[in-house]
Specification:
mainly alpha, 23 helices, metal-binding, Recoverin, domain 1, 504 residues, transmembrane
Length: 504
């Protein structure tokens, strides 16, 4: 029996390394205990500004000339007019010597950050209504009006993408110039211009966009250099599946001393569920090859759908009198959707939704996914949770490979404000606790304090691992699925989190 127990432990560790939060990078407890202090943040800002200056100073003479400044904007599809370039130089060149020194550059960056509330970001704005909640009314307008307004926005965005290229006029970086324009522009741009000339289409106005700050240009260029290998993700998935099959073969027909082994060994995915999942993976590999942030934005858009479906179907079952179970399950799914929404907002802050074609695909895929998953839940709730587990496991594999491949680059980039607010300010919030179902301390890692982009993706990977565990628990009708926030009354505060985490 000890030998069997040891083998089970080894297999669980191997499986968890690819299918759960254990795969996320380890952070020292001392670093996890509290949010970053102001002094390290200021030092990090100075280092970031110096790196941005070196990025512009291409000839290495210690100054940024007008030619170098204009070339930097050109590289990221943000060309400046002669007047705009002259205005940028005047605002930074304090001693009027027709060049920008490091001190002048730092002073300009500081002024820009103060104008934006002291925040250094990547200069992206959320597209559409995702994240555009500031200033929006609490209640939307009627459906007909909302649909008409959205159609006008989407038609204008489609016409811009066709005539100017994706990223040409909407402020996206050069990698956002998409395949749409490469084949559609020769075909449809002349037609669009002709219809506009005949008055059948309104005059296409340039989308109003604010040129990014100087520091944001360097950050965007660094984002463009991030890499993700489809082959590496496939290898990670194959390892996870092989580990699961090994568990099934060893423990599928006998009682295991570990709950994790019982869960993994008993939940084999049928072929008709694996088939659409594999088709989705092939689609992601083909459409988002070389564009990891756009891939993540698509994944997070789709990842919200299951929790809408589960809440909808549970309400339907209750309304029809078919079933009424633990009400905290709906609370659990609401908390999971909130977590995925914040992942989505983070990807928008990094420009993941820059292409119109990506937004079009993601939103329509989410709509189709909603209907298909509702039907699958109706036929088998366990299989719908199983399919969601597959997608969340794929997300863990994807984020894990992204962290390993880009560790050095991510560690040198700052975290966007939305990520710092979510993980640092809401680290003990009710909803972040409520999305987890296990009371084992190792299954509830506290969020890592966020300073760099590496910290951000480490937290996201840990969140996705928690979703995997929850989806696995929901497939077992014998499990007592109870959110942690329901079991720990003081968990909704930072003090409650610290008490549960050991009082540090």
């Amino acid at each position: 029996m000890p030998r069997l127990h040891a083998a089970a432990l080894a297999l669980v560790a191997s499986a968890a390394a690819t299918a759960a939060h254990v795969r996320t990078p380890k952070v020292p407890l001392a670093a996890r205990a509290r949010a970053p202090r102001a002094a390290p943040r200021l030092a990090h800002a100075r280092v970031a500004r110096a790196a941005a200056f070196a990025h512009f100073d291409t000839d290495g003479d210690g100054f940024i000339s007008a030619r170098e400044l204009g070339a930097a904007f050109e590289r990221l599809d943000q060309p400046l007019t002669v007047g705009e370039l002259a205005a940028r130089m005047r605002s930074a060149d304090l001693d009027a010597d027709a060049r920008i020194s490091l001190d002048e550059f730092e002073a300009l960056c500081a002024r820009e950050e103060r104008a934006d509330g002291g925040e250094a970001d990547y200069g992206f704005e959320p597209s559409g209504y995702y994240g555009a909640d500031v200033g929006d009314p609490a209640t939307p307008t009627n459906g007909f009006r909302s649909a008409a307004e959205n159609f006008k926005r989407e038609l204008a965005a489609l016409r811009r993408a066709t005539r100017h290229g994706e990223g040409g006029s909407d402020g996206a970086s050069r990698t956002a110039r998409g395949a749409l324009a490469s084949w559609a522009r020769p075909l449809f741009a002349p037609v669009d211009e002709r219809l506009e000339g005949l008055g059948l289409l309104p005059v296409l106005e340039e989308e109003r966009s604010v040129k990014p700050r100087l520091a944001s240009l360097r950050l965007r260029d660094e984002l463009d250099r991030l890499q993700l290998s489809n082959e590496a993700i496939s290898r990670a998935e194959k390892t996870r599946i092989a580990n699961r099959r090994a568990l099934t073969q060893q423990f599928g027909g006998q009682a295991s001393p570990l709950r994790e082994v019982r869960e993994l060994a008993s939940q084999e995915t049928p072929w008709f569920v694996m088939l659409p999942y594999q088709a989705l993976c092939l689609f992601l590999d083909a459409v988002f090859d070389g564009r990891p942030l756009a891939r993540f934005w698509f994944l997070e858009t789709v990842a919200r759908v299951p929790y809408f479906v589960f809440t909808t179907m549970l309400h339907l079952y209750e309304t029809l009198g078919w079933w009424r179970g633990e009400q905290l399950v709906k609370q659990l799914h609401f908390a999971q959707e909130s977590n995925e929404l914040h992942h989505l907002l983070i990807m928008e802050a990094l420009g993941g939704d820059a292409r119109w074609s990506d937004r079009f695909l993601a939103r329509h895929a989410a709509l189709l996914y909603f209907g298909a998953l509702c039907a699958l839940f109706f036929a088998s709730p366990a299989l719908s949770y199983n399919f969601s587990e597959l997608l969340e496991s794929h997300a863990v594999d994807t984020y894990g490979e992204f962290l390993r491949t880009n560790k050095q680059a991510l560690s040198a980039l700052p975290a966007p404000k939305v990520a710092r607010d979510y993980y640092n300010l809401e680290r003990g919030s009710f909803l972040r606790r409520a999305m987890r179902t296990s009371d084992r301390p190792e299954a509830v890692p506290p969020p890592y304090p966020v300073v760099t982009l590496y910290d951000v993706f480490a937290n996201i990977a840990a969140d996705e691992g928690a979703h995997v565990s929850t989806m696995r628990s929901c497939q077992d009708s014998a499990d007592d699925i109870r959110p942690l926030a329901a079991s720990f009354g003081n968990a909704g505060s930072a003090q409650g989190w610290d008490e549960y985490d050991g009082g540090d």
